[in-house]
C-alpha cells in the first residue's frame, strides 16, 4: 500500500510524464504544421541537430511518419526555443515566471519549471499543500492552452481537464510504474543554445528572401493577370513598339526575352522588375495615391499603393549592406507584408486560408536549414548585383 506522499508524487509524475508532453505537442502542432517540407527543413538544420541527444535525433528523423507523437518535454522545449515560432517569455527563457505572466511562452517555461520541481522533489516534501499548489497551476495552464487553441472552456474548465486525472483513481500498480518512470527522468535543462548572432540575423534575412523571391513576384503576376491577359498585353507591347521603337530601350536582354514569352499566354517567366515597369507603362492599375515611386501613407490602401509598398520593401532588403536583419525589423516587416498580402487576397478574391497571407505566415515561422539560408541569401545578393541593369527605382 502506497503512502499519501507517494500517491501525490505519482499523480504529479503522471502530469510530467504524460499531460505536459501532450500540451506541448498541441502547441507545436499549432505553430508548425507537420508536412514534408517542414520535416525536411528541421531534420537538415545542423545547428538544431547539434543540440539533440542520440535518442532525440532518432525521434526527429521519424517526424514525417509520426509527427510529434513521441516528443517529450525536453525535445518540445528545445524545438520551441530554437526555431522562435513564438515570442519568448516576458522575462526571457530560463527565468522565474510570475503569476501575472500568462502568455504562451510563459506557460511553456512554467511547464519546464513545474516539471523540474516534481522531478527533483524529495518524497518527504510532497505535502498536500505543495501538491494542491502544483495542481492548481496545471489546471490554469490547461485553460490558457485551450484558449490559445480558441476552443471553448465552460466554467473555466478546459478541454484538457479530463486528461489531468485524479490521484484517488490511481491503481497501486500505476503508482509504482509512475514513480519508477519519474525516477528515471533528468532535470530539463535551460541550456542557453550556443548561437552566433550573425547566423540568426542571416536566418531572418533569408526569411524575407523567401517573400521577395517567391511571394512578391507571384503577387505582381496575379494582380496583372486579373486585369489583362498575357496575350492581350503582348499585343499592346508589339503595337507600342511599332509606334515608338525606343520605348523599351532600357530593358535588358533577359527582360526582352521574358516579354516575348507573354505570347505563350503566361506571366510565369516575367520577373518582378519587368512586371513593375509594365504595370506603369500600360496603366494596368490606377496610379497610387502618392504617385509612382513615392512612399504611400498609412491610409493609402489601394492595390497600386501596395504595389509600391512591395517595391519599397524589396529594395530595402535587397540593398542592405549586410545580409542581416534584426528580430524587431523582421517582425515589423512581416507585419506590414501580412497586411499587404491580406489586401491583395481580397483584391484577387482569394478564399481565406488559400491566399498569399497564409503563404507569408508560413515563411515567417517555417524552419530554414543552412542550405535554404544560403540559397535565399544568395538569391537576394544576385538581385543586388543586377542593380543598374534591372532598376526598380524609377
Please outline the major beta sheet: none
Q: How many runs of DSSP E, i.e. beta strands?
A: 0
- The helix/strand class is mainly alpha
Give helix % range.
55-70%
Give the percentage of residues in beta strands. Answer: under 5%
Low-confidence stretches: 152-156
Rg over CA atoms, rounded to whole Å, is 27 Å
The ordered string of helix (H) and strand (E) elements is: HHHHHHHHHHHHHHHHHH
Calculate the mean pLDDT score and round it: 85
Number of domains: 2
Estimate the global geometry from the Cα principal axes: elongated
Helix segment tally: 18
What separation lies between the terminal Cα atoms? 83 Å
Features:
394 residues; 2 domains; mainly alpha; 0% strand; single chain
Give the gist of this structure.
InterPro entries: HEPN_DZIP3. The protein has 18 helices and no strands. The protein has helices at 4-31, 36-43, 46-49, 54-61, 63-66, 73-82, 104-120, 128-148, 161-164, 172-184, 197-225, 230-243, 253-260, 272-281, 303-318, 327-348, 356-365, 370-385.
Amino acid at each position: 500500500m502506497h503512502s499519501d506522499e507517494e500517491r501525490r508524487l505519482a499523480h504529479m509524475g503522471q502530469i510530467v510524464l504524460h499531460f505536459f508532453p501532450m500540451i506541448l505537442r498541441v502547441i507545436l502542432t499549432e505553430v508548425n504544421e507537420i508536412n514534408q517540407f517542414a520535416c525536411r527543413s528541421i531534420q537538415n538544420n545542423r545547428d538544431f541537430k547539434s543540440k539533440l541527444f542520440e535518442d532525440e535525433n532518432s525521434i526527429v528523423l521519424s517526424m514525417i511518419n509520426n509527427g510529434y507523437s513521441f516528443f517529450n518535454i525536453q525535445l518540445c522545449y528545445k524545438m520551441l526555443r530554437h526555431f522562435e515560432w513564438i515570442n519568448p517569455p516576458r522575462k526571457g527563457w530560463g527565468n522565474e515566471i510570475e503569476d501575472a505572466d500568462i502568455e504562451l511562452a510563459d506557460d511553456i517555461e512554467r511547464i519546464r519549471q513545474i516539471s523540474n520541481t516534481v522531478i527533483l522533489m524529495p518524497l518527504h516534501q510532497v505535502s498536500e499543500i505543495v501538491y494542491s499548489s502544483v495542481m492548481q497551476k496545471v489546471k490554469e495552464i490547461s485553460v490558457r492552452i485551450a484558449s490559445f487553441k480558441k476552443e471553448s472552456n465552460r466554467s473555466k474548465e478546459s478541454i484538457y481537464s479530463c486528461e489531468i486525472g485524479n490521484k484517488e483513481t490511481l491503481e497501486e500498480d500505476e503508482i509504482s510504474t509512475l514513480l519508477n518512470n519519474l525516477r528515471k527522468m533528468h532535470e530539463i535543462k535551460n541550456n542557453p543554445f550556443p548561437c552566433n548572432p550573425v547566423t540568426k540575423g542571416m536566418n531572418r534575412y533569408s526569411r524575407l528572401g523567401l517573400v521577395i523571391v517567391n511571394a512578391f513576384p507571384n503577387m505582381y503576376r496575379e494582380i496583372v493577370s486579373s486585369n489583362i491577359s498575357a496575350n492581350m498585353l503582348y499585343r499592346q507591347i508589339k503595337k507600342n513598339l511599332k509606334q515608338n521603337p525606343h520605348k523599351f530601350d532600357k530593358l535588358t536582354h533577359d527582360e526582352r526575352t521574358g516579354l516575348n514569352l507573354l505570347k505563350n499566354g503566361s506571366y510565369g517567366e516575367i520577373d518582378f522588375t519587368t512586371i513593375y515597369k509594365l504595370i506603369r507603362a500600360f496603366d494596368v492599375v490606377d496610379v497610387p495615391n502618392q504617385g509612382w515611386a513615392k512612399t504611400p501613407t498609412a491610409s493609402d490602401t489601394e492595390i497600386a499603393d501596395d504595389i509600391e509598398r512591395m517595391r519599397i520593401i524589396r529594395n530595402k532588403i535587397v540593398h542592405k549592406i549586410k545580409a542581416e536583419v534584426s528580430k524587431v525589423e523582421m517582425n515589423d516587416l512581416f507585419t506590414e507584408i501580412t497586411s499587404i498580402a491580406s489586401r491583395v487576397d481580397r483584391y484577387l478574391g482569394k478564399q481565406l486560408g488559400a491566399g498569399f497571407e497564409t503563404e507569408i505566415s508560413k515563411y515567417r515561422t517555417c524552419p530554414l536549414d543552412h542550405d535554404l539560408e544560403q540559397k535565399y541569401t544568395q538569391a537576394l545578393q544576385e538581385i543586388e548585383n543586377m542593380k543598374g541593369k534591372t532598376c526598380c527605382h524609377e
